[in-house]
Amino acid sequence: MSSYKDKKVITIGIISELTGLSERKIRYYEERKLIFPERTKGGTRKYSFDDVERLVDIANKMEDGMQTFDIRRMEQKKLSKKELRERMLRGQLNAAFNMRK
Predict the structure, then answer these.
(1) Torsion sign, CA atoms 25, 26, 29, 31
(2) 30 is in which domain, residue-wise?
(3) How many folded domains does the chain comprise?
């Protein structure tokens, strides 16, 4: 059973309020493969509480002068290749076919 922190139920507007990041910046982090929201059938992005923590961490690293490429590379080292591949494929499938978990 997954934790409530893993469930993707929060919209981008609420994420923006919680983190202080603009919706545009959140979408940019998604484009740079730093965050992987799920999509509803209507295309709405859904995030988890883990994603909130991740976005704050990303923003802090960016403020410290890190580039998105470096952040992504650090995360790739943390995640197994298989897990990263599954996350990316899940995000791509969600975007392409409006699938949900």
Answers:
(1) negative
(2) 4-100
(3) 1
CATH number at residue 32: 1.10.1660.10
Phi, psi values for residue 96, rounded to 5°: -75, -35
Residue 82 has pLDDT above 60, yes or no: yes
| Separation CA 58–CA 36 (nearest Å) | 13
What's the whole-number average pLDDT of the chain?
Answer: 87
Residue bearing tokens 């999509």:
39
SS (H, E, C) 2-61: CCHHHCCCEEHHHHHHHHCCCHHHHHHHHHCCCCCCEECCCCCEEECHHHHHHHHHHHHH
pLDDT at 88 over 80: no
Give yes or no for a contact between 96 and 39, defined as CB atoms under 8 angstroms apart.
no
Task: Grade residue 57 by pLDDT with cuts at 50, 70 and 90.
Answer: very high
